[in-house]
Structures are given as structure tokens and as C-alpha cells.
Amino acid sequence: MAKEGREARETLDVVKALRVDPNFKYEVMESPGGETLKVCFQCGTCTSSCPVARFTHSYRPRHLIRMAQLGLRNPVLSSDTLWLCAACFTCTDRCPQGVEVSSVLRVLRNLAVSKGFIPEAYKRMVETILSTGYAYRIPKIRFTKREALGLPPLPKGSVENLSKISKIMGFSEEE
Ligand code: SF4
Ligand code: SF4
Fold first, then answer.
1. Is the CB of 72 under 6 A from ligand 2?
2. Is 15 touching ligand 2 by the criterion CB < 6 Å?
3. Domains of the chain with bracketed CATH
4. Residue 64: CB within 6 Å of ligand 1?
5. Which residue lies with its CA nearest to atom 4 of ligand 1?
6. How far apart are CA 4 and CA 41, in angstroms?
7. How far apart are the first and last CA of the chain?
8. How many CB atoms lie within 10 A of CB 166?
9. Mean pLDDT of residues grouped by 10 in the chain (175 residues)?
């Protein structure tokens, strides 16, 4: 009995340390695309079908789904692996429970952004898009070469419109 009591206390300590939030799953399920989170029964089909998981042991969509179900808000939202999903929807197509895995992961990324958990690489990409209208900085030589070859200039991105979108999405507040 004493052993059981100690184990229960240890489990409680782990739960406290991980700051389990039982409401987290409802928050995910209330967001468009996150509705099916609860029906995952952890069969692992998503992970075994995932082309990204094939190349890295650190990426396991099934784990992310489970963490979200368990209410591990901060560990899941701060996880860098959340951003490895290529949004190919293979997992969604193959899930026997009809879990919209890819969409649930998108919801988790959106929640991560709203809490300021954005990997540096994505922050830099957003900065580049907002300042140039392109996803990466195009070297000047590229423009010079296009001109020399008689190619038309590259279309310009609308930095003003992007700035408006960024404000609406809350990106600007994260800077
Ligand atoms: S395939 Fe579906 S039910 Fe199976 S672990 Fe992945 S999300 Fe859960
Ligand atoms: S959508 Fe993401 S998690 Fe699903 S199979 Fe594709 S890369 Fe993997």
C-alpha cells in the first residue's frame, strides 16, 4: 500500500512538473481542423505512413497527437518537431479512425504561433517575406543576369498587403 501511495505521489509530481492542462484538448478540438483529436486510438498508422518520420526518429506524429490528448500544452507547442510536418496528408488519408492528423498538426502550429513558439528559421523567413515580398532574399546577380538575358523582371510582391495580413495574423506582435 505504501508503495502504491509513493507511486501515486510520484505520478502526481510528474504531472505537476509537466503542467498537464486537461482543457488543452478541448481548445484544439474547438479550432477548425482540430475536431477529431479525441478519437485517435494510437495505432501508429500515421507515423508508419509518414514520409518525414522515415528520415528522422525525432518526428512522430502519433506522439504529438498523444501529447495533445494528454494536455501537455507547453511540451507540444514548444516542440520543434511540430514544424517538420510536410502537410502531405498521407496520415489523414490512412488513419483508420478518421483523424484529420495533418489538420490537427496545423492547429497545434497555429496555437504555437499564438503563444510565441516559432522556430528561428520561420521567423527569419517571415521577416524576409514582409520586407521583400519573397520567401528568400534573391541575390542582386539574379536580377542582373535576367536583364542581361532579356528576361522580364520578376513580379513584385505586395509588401503593403503582406504587412496587413501579418498584422491580422498576429505575426507583427511576435517581433
Ligand atoms: S493513424 Fe489515426 S488513430 Fe492511428 S495513431 Fe495516427 S491519428 Fe491515431
Ligand atoms: S501530413 Fe505531416 S504528419 Fe502527416 S504524413 Fe505528411 S508529413 Fe507526416
1. no
2. no
3. 2-114 (1.10.1060.10), 120-174 (no CATH)
4. no
5. 43
6. 28
7. 53
8. 18
9. 71 70 96 97 97 95 96 94 96 98 97 91 88 88 93 87 83 56
